[in-house]
Design goal:
Order of helices and strands of chain A: EEHHHHEEEEHEHHHEEEE
Number of helices of chain A: 8
Oligomer: homotrimer
Helix content of chain A: 10-25%
Number of strands of chain A: 11
Structural class of chain A: alpha+beta
Shape of chain A: globular
Distance between the termini of chain A: 57 Å
Radius of gyration of chain A: 20 Å
């Protein structure tokens, strides 16, 4: 059989590096589509002129375009037989990606633990995206629950990686040349700087977007993510197409402009959970909580650590009394962004 | 509260200039999307070679891409609390926009009049779009009805601007270098030149397009227009998403190719009304009426003034016996385009 | 009447060359949209770096972008009054198309035969797409059944062109400079080379995509194909919009990556039939059969002749006992692609 059956739990070996297929050149076309798919308005990703005024040679590709492109390549090797996408950690954007750059990705297996049911196991991988010069542009850890092909296959020695709860401010990699010293708040859309946000502050982002099937499929294909469950209405018994979790990330991030217009560049993804599945017809809303703040060595540039929650309902509920995510919560993402001080 | 509540009627001051946020660099990506979203076939906007044969350095961005981009930036400041988008006047395209250009927009408040109900008022603004060199590329007057935050707020002195019924031919700004002296009618798609059109002539454009939710949202987001009513199915009591009026403009303009293939560049918008709301599922049709014709100083280039009507039904009805727009009329737009003589 | 009524059967003259309107410049925007519309993952069309490693200056536009663009231009002249799109033959890709190239197309009438019912006839055309230097990039024969305007119009002498059943391997035109000598199978996504495929081998491509209205309309408009039946839900009595056959071709070709990742460039279309109409909501699947294999003069480059079948059901059924296409078969396409030996 020449088609890809995907890997099963017993196919992964600790320490193995999987080079993912199909490199991808990104251009202004992907950027335009990103703006059509999400209500993205971050000035640094919208305007070459604004980016130049911030010390960059031109507007970089949106960080999440980079994330989705790198992630999409991993799907045929990592998550084709995944039962669940369990989490992210230690994600860092290491270098801007420019129109014309070509991205590849590779994943190292850094953890394996069979489940007690003997039918599946958890695989941890550290995925690295690189540009055409081999320079890393992004790396992150992701763990997924993967089915076993054969329940009788022996369990590997359990190795669970020790992952940081969050990227430490000192470990953030900052884009070379970036300066917010002459930052134009009026053009950026809001007057709020790092000092205007308090740790613990919660911002409800007001807007909502009702998702259509065509939109999430266009987006998911754009990143060459081929998981059947997103595209084939006959795949699930209920006839619904599960929306790629990254679509919800991008939607929520774009909605967060309204209140966080100056949280310009994502530099780290500390963690993330796709708390509940999302389907077409859902009106997605978002809220953010300020988790931390830090200084950086770049002129005028601070870092803000944010919890970004996508929700199918108004309000800022996160967990119920039982400690579980509220049923309307779609995404709980923890990230660092750069913001003018 | 850090999210943008939008401005209310009493927040506008006569003469004030509002600089709108989020400059935008346009590229071949936006052009490709425009061709995917609308059945646009104007040769000058489709082919660099055709544009060069007409004396331009390359194919400019479609005029309506420019209009929507400039307009989109105004939404958070002008129409977030608008009850109705009342009209346009004195719109002029002042300079072509090329792929790679970055647009900004700003609006001057040129008129204010509180409604007799004390709950809202009309705001007139003159919006100007500029490129990265600060050169104006488009300006137009738009007026909207905006809610008051506080009915008790005092009414400003009423100032209603004196607006031209149409841009005079002598005031049209013509693209530098444009020539239709060697115009290739076969490549453009139709043999008709300015002399073939009679004032009063009506052209029914034959084709129809049934609109889907995903399409109008992709388009509206592409222009970074964030009005909730276009995206959030929970916003209106009837669960419908109102389609951005500009989507209907672009759709009708593209449909008008069939009969007006040589009405190449829009140089002025004399007026416009979104006569009735448009929703997903509507099959949009279009017809045009020749309102006027004029010569220009450019070789082989004439100007044609057209009424462009988008309709949810076949036929060329405009108004009922009561003088009101027929219920199927979606758009009544009055514009000048350039056409070979 | 200034709108285009389309040509009727009696309007075609044997030997006449019809130059089609609206040249089109293609860019990275069209490529990005292609990746959003189809699950396309061919490495040569995804990555400039991969293309360079194969001896090309950069990644060419996907062959089917070229096909659809050239085809789209013919619609107003050839198939506006077509009753049926009957077949393709002798299609050859003659030269890669690069971002920035501008395509035109022209068709020569090479066959005419009135149907015995006197109400319609079959028109054969050879369509050639050319770039801005006038170099041919694609030519193919297509035949369509076209209505007569007037049943009383005299029948032309019947001329049925003698068409090759398939392009002979020696007649394939190979891209200058192409080499698969250093082909990277891991990056391309699969290890299989020409020698791994046996004539007669059937590959079921596993994945399926459920089509939405918005998607096929975006795609069809992108190629400036204006046939009403694809866009206007009021056009057919059943209220359905017929999906452009080329959309199904691109979808099936993209799905065939899974099992044929190394069938990189399409160099010939030997034949094709849109076996049954396709409508929104269909979950499209694909299977391929290896029909032939051939060597080429280029380093490491072989040719594989494939039957590509798009189907609305699982399985690899093609024809029923009556010799007719099974009802679930949407497309039966016969093409040559280049593959590493």
């Amino acid at each position: 059989m020449k088609t890809n059956p995907g890997r099963f739990f017993e196919d992964y070996r600790l320490g193995e590096v999987i080079r993912h297929a199909v490199p991808r050149t990104l251009s202004g076309g992907e950027r335009a589509l990103y703006h059509a798919l999400y209500p993205a308005r971050g000035a640094l990703y919208s305007s070459d002129e604004f980016a130049r005024a911030c010390g960059l040679p031109q507007s970089p590709m949106d960080d999440l375009i980079v994330f989705h492109t790198v992630f999409g390549k991993t799907v045929p090797d990592i998550s084709l037989n995944a039962v669940a996408n369990l989490g992210y950690a230690e994600g860092r954007f290491l270098r801007p990606v420019w129109p014309g750059d070509t991205l590849e990705s590779a994943s190292e297996v850094i953890g394996l633990r069979e489940n007690s049911n003997g039918a599946s196991g958890v695989v941890w991988v550290r995925t690295t995206g690189r540009n055409q010069r081999g320079e890393p542009v992004l790396d992150y850890v992701r763990w997924v629950m993967v089915r076993k092909r054969d329940r009788a296959a022996p369990a590997p020695a359990a190795v669970v990686p020790d992952l940081a709860g969050a990227v430490a401010p000192a470990d953030l990699v900052l884009p070379e040349g970036l300066s917010f010293a002459g930052y134009d708040f009026a053009l950026a859309g809001e007057p709020y700087r790092l000092g205007d946000y308090a740790i613990g502050e919660v911002i409800e982002h007001v807007d909502g977007v009702t998702i259509e099937e065509a939109e999430h499929m266009l987006a998911t294909r754009l990143w060459q993510n081929t998981a059947k469950v997103h595209f084939d209405a006959t795949f699930r018994d209920d006839g619904q197409r599960l929306i790629y979790g990254g679509h919800v990330i991008s939607l929520a991030r774009a909605l967060s402009f309204n209140g966080l217009a100056n949280a310009q560049m994502i530099v780290a993804i500390n963690g993330g959970a796709h708390a509940n599945p999302c389907f077409s017809g859902t009106t997605v809303r978002a809220w953010s909580e300020v988790l931390d703040k830090a200084e950086t060595a770049l002129p005028g540039v601070g870092a803000i650590r944010l919890r970004l929650v996508a929700s199918a309902a108004r309000g800022t509920a996160l967990r119920g009394a039982d400690g579980k995510y509220a049923p309307e919560v779609l995404l709980d993402l923890d990230y660092w962004a750069l913001m003018p001080v």
